[in-house]
Amino acid sequence: MQPDSAVSVPTESPVVRGEADVPAQRPAGPEDGELVARLRQGDEAAFARIVTSWSPMMLRVARGHVSTDASCEEIVQETWMAVIRGLDRFEGRSSLRTWVFRILTNLAKTRGVREARSVPMSSMSPFAPADEAGPTVDPDRFRPADDRYPHNWTPVGAPVQWQPGPEQAAVAGETRRLLGTALQDLPERQRAVVTLRDVHGLSSDEVCAALDLSAANQRVLLHRGRARLRAVLEEYYRATGKVTS
Fold first, then answer.
1. Beta bridge partners of 26
2. Shortest CA distance to 193 belongs to which of 174, 170, 219, 214?
3. What digits encode the pLDDT tens for the residues 82-110?
4. What is the largest CA-CA distance in the chain?
5. What is the DSSP string of 67-105?
6. Does domain 152-244 have CATH number 1.10.10.10?
7. Tens of pLDDT along 145-193?
8. Which of 27, 62, 111, 168 could bridge 164 with an S-S bond, Cβ 3.0-4.6 Å?
9. Which value, in Å, is the radius of gyration of the alpha carbons in the chain?
10. pTM of the model
11. How far from 127 is each of 113, 130, 226, CA to CA, in Å?
12. Bridge-based pairing state of the strands 243-244 and 161-162
């Protein structure tokens, strides 16, 4: 299993070791050990499977640090080359996927600096972007402070039961298309977190490491993103009458 071309990433650098500026992660499990052994033996089928499986979410992470799709693709390619070169030094202190994403993030951050991107997605500015500020739920859905039942739901604003339930509806083609469009319309940081957590199945620790987010910031972005998606579904079900009182 050899890379198609050379890449100038020192194999002893923190980038390849995946140790730069990331929180501690869970150690590798037994399944990781078997996969790493196969990769070290040059199992091309095993390598092809993880490249196919992980590359889409790697592109999403890279896009948070650089400004073009071409740069994202180059970073992902460089990451896989660095993985091949550094695999013998993988110590299992984190999962293999977390280690790969650490390499990706470090390469993407380096490229982002080189491209002089002014405000990276992972910026921890104390001021949230305008489209991430404000309440998660429309305040008009709650009773006013002088109401007999202040701050409770109004009759119109109260959540409703969807019929069919969201679990069944989520597999319907129309609902999938609706959610896909709503996901693309989310603010960039929310979209990245929701995609990695709910579409690709990364853990909160992995998302924090991949996107350079604090645990608290990741929770806020995930909550806001999910709330927006739920609001889209709720509006759809209200409009189509597929709700029960």
1. none
2. 219
3. 999 999 989 888 889 989 998 998 898 88
4. 71
5. S-HHHHHHHHHHHHHHHHHHGGG--SSS-HHHHHHHHHH
6. yes
7. 777 777 676 766 666 555 555 556 454 677 778 888 898 888 888 888 9
8. 168
9. 21
10. 0.59
11. 22, 9, 21
12. antiparallel
What residues have CB less than 8 Å from 152, skipping those under 6 apart? 142, 143
CB of 211 within 8 A of CB of 144? no
Q: What is the pLDDT of residues 30-84, one digit of tens each?
A: 678 899 999 999 999 999 999 999 999 899 888 878 888 899 999 999 999 999 9
Q: Which two tokens stand for residue 147?
A: 């109401």
**Helix %, strand %, coil % of the chain (to 5):** 60, 0, 40
Domain 14-114: which CATH number of 1.10.10.10, 1.10.1740.10, 3.30.390.30, 3.40.190.10: 1.10.1740.10
